[in-house]
Amino acid sequence: MSWIDLTGKVAVVTGAMRDVGLDRLGGHDVVSAFVEDLMPRLTGDPTLAVYWKGKSRDSMRKDKQLLLEFLCMAFGGPSAYLGRDMKTSHEGLGITDDEWDVFAVHAVATLDKLGISGSEKSEFLAAASSLKPDIVEVPR
Ligand code: HEM
Description:
By secondary structure, this protein is mainly alpha-helical.
């Protein structure tokens, strides 16, 4: 676990994410395609849609941009992330373990669609899992 101080806020990024490496994934454009494909899957899922209900189109654009910047930063890219750390931004949402699993199925589907496979895929998923303790609040 390492700590990066950005814009006066402290973002926690796991070594697992940095180790994946942005370039190995295909760089900013591939991560952007990942976010563009993943977000509609999440917001369109009947189990998860509640989390984004009532958000304007522009707020969704902002959320997508923050996710993109977070992932690029966390995978070791040069981009700055100006959002909140994962614990702060998910605290109080009450995300459950089961909902995390639904999210993970969508993440796998997106990786498959983009042709991210092999060690990149498994390391990407391991990196996501390393953030789970900060995101899931209701364990099984
Ligand atoms: C590894 C997995 C995840 C990552 C990397 C991630 C990343 C992010 C980022 C970067 C933000 C924006 C932070 C900010 O506004 O400053 C955010 C917000 C949010 N995330 Fe996640 N997230 C993950 C998983 C999830 C899951 C599984 C859910 C729901 C099932 C979820 C629901 C939300 C919601 C609703 C917000 C908006 C919170 C608000 O506006 O107050 N996230 N996430």
